[in-house]
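Dear colleague,

Following up on yesterday's call, I've attached the two folding results inline so they're easy to grep. Please treat them as preliminary; we haven't cross-checked anything against experimental data yet. The first protein's sequence and structure tokens come first.
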Amino acid sequence: SRIRRGLIDRYGSSPIPERAPDMAALIQNQLRERGYLRPSVSTSVEVAHNPHQTTLTFTMTAGERAKVGVVEVNGTPGVPQPELIERLGLRAGAPYDPDTLATRVDQYLAERRQRGYVEARLAPVVRLASDDHVANVALNVDQGPRVRVEFRGDPLPDDRRNELVPVTREGSANEDLLEDASNAIEEYLRGQGYRDAIAPHTREESAGELRITFTVKRGPQYRVADIQ
């Protein structure tokens, strides 16, 4: 059902037979995403005239599914290494499933970012062995510093802070993003009539924590006094 759904989503429910090679390649990619690294897919076309219809048949040989071999963790994951390996489902001898692994990596990163580690990174590097039947996985991980964003000076609406300073959403606290955030705050306040508004930021890192502070100064609010 998953393969059929993928074909229909990409090529429609009545694809032309000339697209058969592309469709076969899509099936192979789907099988590789589930750990069948050497699939074989062939196609055949049967044309009937009573009634008029064409049947496109795919013959698939998935082959042996790769299994997880050696798993190593390089870096600072922020959780015990055995726990990280277990959360990613990378037990030695278990089926190697790249698609599920990618989903679990995203879940780990989302959990770290919710805890303030917005620059957390996790990149699995896979080395295949034994004729592509064993996948040795190196997890290159860096939790990064815990990021704390603070606002000083004049207040900003709580429901606009994450929108104006999208550190968590973007998963980054680099200087370009922070500069854009300062500009966004200033533009927002100018739209409210505070045409002299400024919102510079500072960053200070110590003891594994990165503190980012925006100092908001709205200045006077300008109002329309006269229209001629």
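Below is the second protein, in the same order (sequence, then structure):
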Amino acid sequence: NTQIVVLVLVIAAVLVAAAAGVALYRRSTLRRRFGPEYSRLADQMGPSAAERELRDRERRHADLDIRPIDPVSRERYRAAWTDLQTRFVDQPEQTVGAADALVTHLVAECGYPTSDYQEQMAQISVDHAGALAHYRTAHDIFRRHQSGQASTDELREALVHYRELVADLLGADPVSRRGEVPPVTTPPR
């Protein structure tokens, strides 16, 4: 009888250790994948609730048809971004609105939802967690601008943050170091 009790206790201890190991692995995987978004949610709602939310995002994301931007569209977005940056000097107020619209079109073309901002942010976080804080900051400044509460310097800051998201979505900086748009390349047939 003593051996059976000891064996049951050892098996129970091994199962508890295995469950704890799985939980730690899941947590570290979510931290790596979502980075600052994991920390933000954990601070906001606690680690367990944040992990449930992030796993739920991954499940909803699996139902989306996320696709890479084709080379022709990528070049079109790069050219549009270069134009936005050039126009900012003379028209900062209009340019930030145009940048927000460009980002909305880009994320829609990638396959992310655009009808609900919170869901859009949640789904973008699955693939682009590193750029999500940039998007959140830029969009917040844009919203403040719409109510007349953002300075020109803040609008410039918003444009810089939008650029980070655009670069992440396109897979490269939308403008070369010298401000030139890379040549359009056509895919081989």
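For the second protein, one point worth flagging: The chain has a mean pLDDT of 88.

Best wishes,
A.L.
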